[in-house]
Amino acid sequence: MKLGFVGTGAITESVVRGLVKAGNDLEGIAVSPRNADVAARLAALHQLIRVARDNQSVVDSSDIVFLAVRPQVANDIVAGLEFHPGQRVVSFVAGLQLEELAEWTRGIPRLCRAIPVPLVADLHGVTAIFPGDSVVTDLAPLT
Asked: How high is the pLDDT of residue 103?
């Protein structure tokens, strides 16, 4: 499975660190170049992690796309992306309703929301996921 992260802030860093620690069976993790420092730190963690050229490259190379952008820029970023049938999109965006996200993604991907906490970097804490999606919940540290 290939994962991608649009947005490279503290939550993305925590989740990716947790994914690496958990040893999930992944083919790759693409991170957006938005925050160059965080992206470089993540790429240095593991050979499966790469910094993508742009957000569309993250989407194009991922089975599951995690949206980790600020609410005030989410519409501009997400509406400009082309998602693919069969993809899953997991939103970490605070306050973003799934109905809005479905509009922005033109109803193409399967959607859910998740609320990870920074402790997931060390495989601690609980992540709320709605609606439940077994593929997403099977990814430690999101269990």
From this structure: 95
Listing DSSP states for 113-127 in one string gives EEE--GGGGGT-S--
Whether CATH 1.10.3720.10 fits 2-137: no
pLDDT of amino acid 4: 99
Q: Return the domain boundaries, the chain.
A: 2-137
Confidence of residue 60 (pLDDT cuts 50, 70, 90): very high
pLDDT tens digits for 97-143?
999 999 999 988 899 999 999 999 999 988 999 999 999 989 978 76
Residues sharing a CB contact under 8 Å with residue 141, sequence separation 6 or more, in sequence order = 15, 18, 19, 21, 22, 116, 120, 121, 123, 124, 125, 127
Number of Cβ atoms within 10 Å of the Cβ of 27: 11
- Phi then psi for residue 83, to 5 deg, are -90, 165
